[in-house]
């Protein structure tokens, strides 16, 4: 301000906030007569907890906030403050020529300085600590906001991403840890591009006008809420605010909490009634507190509610409307914010129960957030990125480039029925990327990725032929389509593999979609198998070998042998017999005397939610056995899986099924498992193993062993097994 800052009444400036005066808004003010300005700035009564005053412009900017520049008049200059109507003859904002802010040498700016600024309507506080809100918009927005607030509804007045604020207690370090914990789970439920998630400290809650731009207040602390802070929260509710209490001491409206020590930090069965009145049953970690109505109170509650499946049907979730402006709170005494891997969860049995309910935990959270006015729709599909052609070994690069030069068309393109690959030395943003036309960058030196380390992949790949040439993409439609145009031509010693960080059109069995979040190991591997070979005569075994390779890739690492990763017939990777964390999809084409096979594989490595991943198993193992096994990476596990697969194929070709079945049975989940044939009412049989072709063998009650196939209609391949007809 070049020592030109003047303030009335001897006030000392505490903070200077950058202000951008938008041209179009200033022009709108300029065109208005001075008395119109007075109408925009009415005198406001003192706010109360029960009613919201008629707001003026300064209230939106933070008139009571000492950290936001207000509209105090400069002594001797004439004008109007933010709390008094302007006299018609006063020289105000509407009577000045405005321009963008310049240096002090600018004549127009000196003129502006010498006049009274009646109100700062468009201020930005984006990068200011302890001010987790933002005020911007247009003059039309402000007029609409005033009208809507007079109709008794809270609105977002800024046009910027509305805030979700988290109050998590007063202890500095504990509050920060708790904030990160709770923020993480809500960030998985809502689109963080649409909402901004902030920590709300006690000081900021008492001092700053946070409620103007707060769409949801999350209270997640078990410490007692101080009276002055409770009054702030209740005032926010009375203005139409929304509150989510997560194992918090915050309560109101005739509710009290009763502590039951027998329930404290134990896993319980919860019945949750959703907004559409359907029910979800899940296992939850109880805080130990339950909700009870005060004697004599008759409360009108919302549709959301949750009670335990115990004799008392203890209430753990209640939806409580408040006030006349649409305020409401959902109060919860189940730890929906804690992951199953939390340090609070000690017993492995509790981890299993909570992890099995993890997807339903997110379902409940999303229903609560949607009821409170948030959008929990699936995020936008990420933009496609170029492919990179990478060698796993330096010596393969020159032969690869020579082969490629002989097979691309004059424009550098190789086409297949599903995708065209255009090979380029470098990529610029002007080059279009579509699901059917993808650029492939051949400059290895220019390659870098936060999610895939080529050196780590190389160190873990110990193969003679598989996985030697990599097509890598950060985001691609599906890896299953990338190799189609290359698979019949490229020399087999240049084993092709497509690897992606994210897929937008991942595929599972049949028409099933395979979700591909960050942290999932995604690849499609090309292998060729002679028709007249052990494996060529038993192609169904390929999917079993790939599933087994994933499990063995982890459990063959020293000290990781007891990580409870298993195979489930015919193509799944499981945690114990409880939860799926990966799958395999095989497409084979017989050309002459050779099977050309694309093996698509995806398994969860570091993406814990909404189901389970390998690093969850490692974390839980460390907790149970007091070990310090390190989490694993997707790039190293893909390379290790390909290495194990090549060894399994070689063993199978040499010894047939008996060469690999002992290892397969060591890890499969079906030992002694019972299933029914044909339907839920069909005869019960026992799974005993695989036949010579890779299909299931079952034993009937009379001791007879027979081969069965899936019926082709069930999502779970072990449902409705049928006995195939023999010609």
Q: What secondary-structure arrangement, pairings included, does this model have?
A:
Blueprint: H1 23-30, H2 34-40, H3 57-61, H4 107-113, H5 139-150, E1 163-167, H6 172-187, E2 196-199, H7 202-207, E3 214-219, H8 227-238, E4 242-246, E5 255-259, E6 267-273, E7 279-285, E8 289-293, E9 305-308, E10 315-322, E11 327-332, H9 348-356, H10 358-371, E12 387-391, H11 397-407, E13 413-415, E14 420-424, E15 437-441, H12 454-460, E16 469-476, E17 496-503, E18 520-530, H13 541-555, E19 565-568, E20 572-575, E21 579-591, E22 594-604, H14 614-625, H15 634-655, H16 661-667, E23 674-676, E24 684-690, E25 696-699, E26 705-708
Helix pairs in contact: 12-15, 13-15
Describe the structure.
By secondary structure, the protein is α+β, with helices and mostly antiparallel strands. It has 3 domains: 163-372, Class I glutamine amidotransferase (GATase) domain (Rossmann fold, 3-Layer(aba) Sandwich); 387-662, Bira Bifunctional Protein, Domain 2 (BirA Bifunctional Protein, domain 2), CATH 3.30.930.10; 673-724. It is 23% helix and 22% strand. It contains 16 helices and 26 strands. The strands form 4 sheets. It has an 11-stranded mixed beta sheet, with helices on both faces. Strands 2-1-3-4-11-10-9-6-7 form a 9-stranded mixed beta sheet. A hairpin with a 4-residue loop joins strand 13 and strand 14. Helix 12 runs parallel beside helix 15 and helix 13 packs across helix 15 (634-655). The radius of gyration is 32 Å and the shape is globular. The chain starts with 22 loop residues before the first helix and ends in a 19-residue tail after the last strand. The model is unreliable at 35-105, 109-160 and 510-514 (pLDDT under 50).
């Amino acid at each position: 301000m070049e020592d030109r800052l003047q303030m009335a009444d001897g006030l000392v400036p505490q903070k200077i906030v950058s202000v951008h005066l938008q041209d179009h808004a200033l022009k709108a003010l300029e065109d208005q007569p001075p008395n119109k300005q007075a109408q925009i700035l009415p005198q406001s009564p003192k706010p109360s907890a029960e009613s919201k005053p008629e707001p003026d412009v300064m209230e939106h900017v933070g008139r009571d906030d000492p950290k936001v520049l207000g509209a105090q008049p400069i002594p001797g200059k004439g004008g109007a403050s933010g709390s008094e109507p302007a006299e018609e003859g006063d020289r105000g904002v509407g009577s000045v020529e405005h321009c963008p802010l310049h240096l002090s040498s600018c004549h127009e700016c000196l003129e502006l300085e010498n006049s009274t600024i009646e109100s700062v309507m468009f201020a930005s506080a984006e990068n200011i600590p302890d001010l987790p809100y933002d005020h911007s918009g247009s003059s039309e927005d402000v007029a609409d906001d005033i009208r809507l607030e007079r109709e008794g509804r809270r609105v977002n007045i800024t046009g910027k991403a509305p805030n979700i604020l988290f109050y998590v207690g007063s202890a500095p370090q504990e509050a920060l840890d708790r904030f990160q914990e709770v923020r993480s789970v809500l960030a998985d439920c809502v689109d963080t591009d649409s909402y901004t998630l902030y920590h709300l400290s006690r000081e900021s809650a008492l001092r700053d006008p946070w409620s103007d731009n707060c769409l949801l207040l999350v209270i997640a602390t078990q410490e007692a809420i101080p009276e002055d802070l409770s009054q702030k929260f209740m005032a926010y509710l009375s203005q139409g605010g929304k509150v989510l209490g997560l194992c918090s001491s915050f309560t109101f409206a005739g509710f009290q909490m009763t502590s039951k020590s027998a329930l404290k930090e134990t896993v319980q069965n919860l019945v949750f009634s959703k907004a559409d009145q359907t029910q979800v049953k899940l296992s939850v970690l109880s805080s130990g507190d339950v909700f009870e109505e005060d004697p004599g109170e008759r409360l009108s509650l919302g549709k959301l509610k949750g009670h335990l499946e115990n004799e008392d049907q203890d209430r753990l979730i209640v939806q409580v409307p408040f006030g006349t402006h649409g305020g409401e709170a959902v109060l919860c005494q189940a730890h929906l914010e804690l992951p199953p891997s939390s340090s609070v969860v000690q017993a492995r049995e509790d981890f299993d129960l909570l992890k099995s309910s993890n997807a339903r935990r997110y379902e409940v959270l999303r229903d609560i957030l949607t009821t409170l006015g948030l959008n929990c729709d699936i995020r936008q599909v990420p933009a496609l990125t170029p492919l990179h052609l990478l060698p796993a070994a330096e010596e393969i690069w020159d032969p690869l480039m020579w082969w490629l030069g002989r097979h691309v068309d004059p424009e550098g393109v190789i086409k297949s029925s599903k995708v065209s690959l255009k090979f380029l030395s470098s990529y610029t943003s002007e080059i279009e990327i579509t699901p059917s036309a993808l650029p492939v960058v051949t400059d290895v030196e220019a390659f870098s990725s936060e999610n895939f380390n080529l050196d780590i992949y190389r160190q873990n790949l110990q193969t003679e032929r598989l996985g030697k040439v990599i097509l890598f993409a950060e985001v691609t439609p599906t890896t299953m389509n990338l190799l189609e145009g290359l698979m019949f031509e490229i020399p087999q010693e240049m084993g092709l593999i497509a690897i992606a960080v994210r897929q937008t059109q991942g595929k599972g069995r049949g028409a099933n979609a395979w979700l591909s979040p960050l942290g999932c190991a995604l690849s499609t591997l090309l292998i060729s198998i002679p028709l007249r070979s052990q494996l060529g005569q038993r192609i169904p075994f390929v999917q079993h070998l790939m599933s087994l390779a994933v499990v063995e890739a982890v459990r063959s690492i020293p000290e990781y042998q007891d990580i409870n990763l298993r195979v489930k017939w015919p193509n799944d990777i499981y945690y114990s017999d409880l939860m799926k964390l990966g799958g395999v999809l095989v497409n084979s084409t017989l050309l002459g005397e050779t099977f050309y096979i694309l093996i698509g594989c995806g398994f969860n490595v570091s993406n814990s939610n909404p189901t389970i991943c390998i690093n969850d198993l490692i974390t839980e193992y460390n907790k149970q056995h007091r070990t310090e096994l390190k989490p694993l990476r997707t790039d190293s596990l893909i390379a290790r899986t390909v290495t194990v697969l090549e060894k399994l194929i070689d063993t199978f070709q040499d010894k047939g099924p008996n060469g690999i079945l002992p290892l397969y049975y060591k890890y499969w989940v079906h030992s002694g498992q019972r299933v029914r044939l044909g339907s839920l009412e069909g005869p019960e049989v026992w799974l005993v193993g695989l036949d010579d072709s890779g299909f299931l063998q079952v034993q009937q009650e009379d001791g007879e062993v027979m081969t069965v196939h899936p019926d082709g209609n069930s999502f779970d391949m072990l449902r409705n097994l049928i006995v195939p007809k023999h010609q």
